[in-house]
Amino acid sequence: MTAERSKVKKPKPALFDGCISAQKIANSIAGHQTKTRIGAHDIFLGQVRADKIDGKLVAAIEYTAYREMAEKEFHAIRERAFGSFDLTCAHIYHSLGRLKVGEICLFVFTSSVRRYDAMEACRYIVEEIKTKVPVFAREIFEDQSYQWKENTAAK
Fold it and tell me: pTM value?
């Protein structure tokens, strides 16, 4: 456990309403410039895709969650990442509500002394989120019909 890690207080919520703005991402990055022990960051941005499914185009995704369970799992994933990788910081933000194609719905930001841990931890966190967190996505098509989306690990 790093010295900075021992100062961590109650975790901030990972879930919030609406898309993740470019300003939020920029502010997160800028907020780490004074942490001079950090030598590397890795970032994952999940974006709503305009998939074509059975001839219909996805126009939006609506995210819902069992909030309390999801927050506990986000926290557990983050803690496991700190236990497995030499991290300085790790942040997870996931959107709830209806997001249009092109909007950012997931932001994972990891920091470490060296790039390997930042990069591997970021990937680990994203894969764990996709398979373990009770966040549900409903793909909304242009004709307003929908289907539930199944989260899976990377192929």
Answer: 0.89
